[in-house]
Amino acid sequence: MAQDADRKQALYEQLCAMPTVDAHEHLHPEPMRTGRQVDIFLLFHQYLVVDLESAGMDPEAANALGDENVPLDRKWDSIAPYLDLVTSGSVAGPPLAALRRFFDAEALTKDNYAELTGKMRAHNTPGLYERILREACNIDTVLNQNLTMWQTDLFRPILFESSFIGTGTRQSLQDAVAADGLELSPTLQGYVERMEDLLTKRRQEGMVGVKGFATAYEPGDAAAAGPAYQRLIADQARDGDANAVLRYLRDRMYEFCGKLNLVAVLHSGIWAGNWADIETIRPTHVTALACAHRKTRFDLFHAASPQPADAGFLGRSLPNVYLNSCWSHLLSPNLTLQAWDMWLDMMPLNRVMAWGGDYWWAVENVWGALDKVRQMLAELLARRIARGEFTEARALQIARRWMHDNAREVYFLE
Prior knowledge:
Layout lengths: L1 H16 L2 E6 L4 H5 L12 H9 L3 H5 L8 H15 L6 H11 L9 H11 L4 H9 L2 E6 L10 E6 L1 H4 L4 H9 L9 H18 L3 E5 L8 H12 L7 H20 L2 E5 L18 H7 L5 E4 L6 H10 L3 E4 L3 H4 L1 H14 L5 E2 L9 H24 L5 H19 L4
Parallel strand pairs: 1-2, 2-3, 3-4, 4-5, 5-6, 6-7, 7-8
Helix pairs in contact: 1-18, 3-5, 6-18, 8-18, 11-13, 12-13, 15-17, 17-18, 18-19
């Protein structure tokens, strides 16, 4: 047992020294973050809100944890009855780890929330992302989605599909092309041409992917979409017109992504909030889509939750589908470990990206998420070494691929 623990620790230390790619974030530009009057409760916002609401906290009060205009004492009074109920859950792990790493505290308490807020504000200064992401985390690339093309030598942007195909309304289509100073085309084919020009321009500007959702695939029908588009832009849409236009545009967008070496990103498995139906974004919905667009690469986000075996067989049998464990390791480290263990057996080593923090504002939590991933991967690889399945050198080769090389290769960053 002592030998196994030593092996795991040695692997963990080598993983910490290894550069990594953060394969999914929503981080806002640093000036927006450093321009906020942040407080320590921001670390306990976002995903922990779901757990707090499930524990009984008022939803409005839970969401107010991220509002800098709400007094600190009110935030503490609202979260205090529920904090102990959620801190054993895995989503609470990153904020607690961030407290230890950056603010020298083991827990959030009535006696320290004001002091911790002072420390957080003191370090919320220009250079914050460099200090946390590059220096503390050893991240060399962040695949980022914050609704803009903001980028640096660290951040590479991914835009949502609505930036190109709208959301099924005349205004959303107009907004998509207006971003490039264009007018709405009177014909569907004209809109497609402008969409392709916009995708090309964004690719040249540095965009690396387009994000959508793993909903059930319905092939686009040009014969139905053409008249539907005409009615849509004339504000005379009938039932089904929006869907017909979206299906057709989405198909054309995915096909063009393949020509531009843009990755099609698909949110799968589970939604972020409460009251959502996970059946609507099952990983297996991707099968027909990937087969229809075989020259396009698909990055299946959150692939380890909650159907990791299904995702594994997709990664094995569809050469253009890659599995991304981002956020899954926050939801359930045990389920993600099971997924990784299966995937090692099921597919080549270049099919998996192990992690992504998936945060909007709390950049400190990225360190906590990454530290947990490194511990998890070290545990899995140490077990495999102990069983005699491969050497430590082979284990580190796998780790390097899953933590760094695969993401850069899949997104054409090499």
